[in-house]
Amino acid sequence: MKSSPEKIEPRGWVEPKPLAPQRYAYQCTLDQEEYDPMQRARELMGHQSPAGDRPPVLKSALRLLVAHLEKQKYAATDCPRPSKPGTSPRHIPAAVKRAVAARDGGRCAFVSEAGQRCTARHTLEFDHIQPVARGGQATVENVRLVCRGHNQYAAEQEFGVEFMESKRAEARHWRPHVSHVPRALALRPS
Ligand SMILES: [Zn+2]
Fold first, then answer.
1. Residues 6 or more apart from 31 whose CB is under 8 A from it?
2. How far apart are the CA of 29 and the centre of ligand 1, in A?
């Protein structure tokens, strides 16, 4: 049996250095596309952005970005609407996404045979524990958040490495132009 994949760190990410309780040092070089909107945001924030403060736009920008990404990825909202019945059995209703994201705490829910839970918090994808191809439903109990590596690993365990490789090759052949669909989501039978 193939062993479970290691945690994958995003490329180019440098971990901030802890300096003191709740204080971290992070140094980076900005390019023009980052510098210009930072300056513009400072101008627009006006009095909310006192001189001498550490990059004051950073906190606001990150809050907005996190809210946007949570909405996009986990259907997070302050005003949930009742979900409509999905037309595709693969469709995961927004209410299920929200409940799964809250339960799994934005962390990969894969647990190894030794009982260790994966620590990955990035490249997370919704995974049907019992695959749709085998009658799995999009319910909170049957859906979990897993990192891309563990999504592929689970699919290989379920359907076999050879089957998944042939699916990947098929997808590369038929959909070379589709770049915005997360690879594991686009390829796995789910
Ligand atoms: Zn994982």
1. none
2. 30
Query: What digits encode the pLDDT tens for the residues 38-90?
Result: 888 888 887 665 564 556 788 888 999 988 888 888 877 777 766 566 567 78
Contact present, 145 and 104 (Cβ < 8 Å) = yes
pLDDT in tens, 155-186: 888 888 787 777 777 777 665 444 444 444 44
- What is the whole-number distance in angstroms between the Cα of residue 49 and the centre of ligand 1? 39
Of 117, 115, 92, the C-alpha closest to 107 is: 117
Which candidate, 103, 186, 178, 177, places its Cα nearest to that of 151? 186
Q: How many CB atoms sit inside 10 A of residue 66's CB? A: 12
Average pLDDT over residues 106-124: 92
Secondary structure of the chain: what % helix, strand, coil (to 5)? Answer: 45, 10, 45
Q: What are 107's strand-pairing partners?
A: none
Distance (Å) from CA 40 to ligand 1 centroid: 38
For residues 143-168, one letter each, b for 16 or more C-beta atoms within 10 angstroms of the residue's C-beta and e for the rest, the string is bbbbbbbbbbbbbbebbeeeebeebb
pLDDT for the residue 89: 78
